[in-house]
Structure formats: C-alpha cells, structure tokens
Amino acid sequence: MTVYVDLVFLSNLTIDASILMTTAKVRHLRPRRRRLALSASVGAAYAAAMFVTSVPYLYSFGVKLMISALMVFLAFGYGGPLKFVRTIGSFYLVNFATLGAVIGISSLAKWSGSPWRGIAFTAEGGGMVLSFDVQAILLAATLAMAIWLYRSEAESRESRKRLETLVVDVSIRIGDREWTCRGLVDTGNRLYDPLTRIPVMILEASLWRDELPKGWADRLKSESADRLIGELEETEGGLPSFRDRYRLVPYRAAGGNAKLMLAIKPDSVTIADPAGNEEPCVQRRVLVGLDGGALSAEGAYRAIVHADLTLASVEVPASSTQTA
C-alpha cells in the first residue's frame, strides 16, 4: 500500500478542525480561529508522524491522552479543572461519533464486500489508514462540515454583535441605594402609565428579591399584582423605602387580556451608552415594572428598557398603544 503523508496530514487537519469546531458548538465556546488552526495542526502532525518516525510508546494510551489534552488546551484554554475535563469529554464523544461516520462512509462507498475493505491499520496498531477514494470522500464531507460550522458560527457572532449594540448598563437609584444590571433596549415597548404618561421599563423581580416583601418575587409569576398590594399591610419584609413607591400599571398582554403590573417609582434610572461615546442618560420620570420570570433565557440581560428612556429628553406621544 502506498501512503501519501501529505494527504494524511491534510485529511487529518480538516477532520480535527471539524471535530474541534463541533466540540465548541457542543460546549457553547467561541475559540479564536488561529487557536483552532494550531490545535488541528498538532493533531494532524501527530497522525502523520507514524509514517515518518518510529518512536517507542509514541502511540500508547497515555501519549494519546496527552495529545488530546494538549489539543483541547490549545483550542479552548484551561478555564478550571472541571470545565477542562468536560471539554475533553465532549471532544472524545465527537471523535467517537466521527469515527462511526468514517466507517459508515467507507461502507457506503463500496459496492460490495466487507465494510472494512479500504481501511487498514499500521503494523504497530498505532492508527487507521484509509484508501485514497475513501479519503477523498471523507475530506469532501469534512470540508463541507467545516464550512457549514464556520458560516453558522459567523452568523451567530454577527447576531451577538447586533444584540450587544442594544444591551446597555442600567443603574436604578432609590434613596441612597443603587442597583445595576444589563438591559435590552426594546423599541417595541410602548408601555406608559395611563395617568401620568410616564414610560415604564421592565425589571426581573428576582433582582429585588431581598428588597421586596417576603415571597413577592416568586408570587409575581402566578399571582396578580393587585392581590399582592392588597396584602401589603400584612406582609413582612421588604425595604421600608419601597412602601410608598408601589404602583399598579395597567397593560395589555400579547393575548389581548388586560392585566395589572406591579411597578416601583425610583428616584432615577441611569442608562449608559453601549458604545461609550456619549454621557450616560439620567431619567427621573420613569417607573420600573416587575416581571416574575426571567427576561433572557441565557441571562444576557435582566431588564427591558423603554426606548424613550435612551433619549436625552422624553417626549411622550399624545396617544400610544400600551403593550408589554
């Protein structure tokens, strides 16, 4: 059998890069391309080394594990022992799945005979060698996978960048205390208090779990805000400075049902410019509505910022649709 080391290196480079990108997808990691390229090159060089050198124990279990750990480290970094072990585990799971795909492709590529035809092992048992036609098919498949993973990652990165331009730092001040979180500027949020025409931003109630009366942060998920206000005198806990700041804001949910939202009147809300090019915008005519759930499944933000609050001066329209 004639073995072309350059083809072995190229095919393993492409396969290793695809495996590393798949591992990154599984672990929700975003490694740099040059780190992926370096890690894949180490794996490809290790696979090709069996044909150009003969070193005892080079392909033992311990050395293979060390090479795998080195590849994972070069691609994704360390990040702590638990994270590193989990990343190595994901890397091996993707490897096993890829090996099954290799055998399946080689079997489909043959019209007849054993599925192991076209697959051979080195004399020392150090690695697997594929015939040229199977290598070509595998190389084309892994190239297609690599392109697809790269494009999907690029699109995901662009989506994250667009989202980051809408996520701002929000500081809420009540008395001498201040709370800071990340907020998403929502141009579709047109919620105002119907009496004062003050814009209403939305905040996760869990952020004020210790400041609200006992159990309110959890009860807001399933109970109406007016019922909580009705029990205010009998409820223990919560900051005394919040007692005179509670409001009930009517709004219309997506299903068309009219509901009441528990809101708090802060002293001020400061919204930072995400680009850092302008001074933070300070608003005092604002209400903070409380939501009992999580506004972002990934935890990227904990508030929904009214679009008017990002302006230097809030101009409230004469009539607006109140939605949340």
Could you please describe the fold and organization of this structure?
The protein has seven helices and eleven strands. It is α+β, with helices and mostly antiparallel strands and 324 residues long. It folds into two domains: 5-162, no CATH class; 175-310, no CATH class. It has a nine-stranded mixed β-sheet. The chain is elongated, with a radius of gyration of 29 Å. 27% of the residues are buried.
- From the N-terminal CA to the C-terminal CA, the straight-line distance is 69 Å
Q: How helix-rich are the residues, as a percent range?
A: 40-55%
Radius of gyration: 29 Å
What is the approximate shape?
elongated
Count of structural domains: 2
Strand element count: 11
Task: Classify the beta-strand content into a percent band.
Answer: 15-25%
Biggest β-sheet strands, sense, barrel: 9 strands, mixed
Kindly state the mean pLDDT as a whole number?
77
Order of helices and strands: HHHHEEHEEEHHEEEEEE
Decide which structural class fits the backbone.
alpha+beta
Query: Uncertain runs with pLDDT below 50, 5 residues or more?
Result: 313-324
The order of strands across the largest sheet is 6-7-10-5-11-4-3-8-9
Number of helices: 7
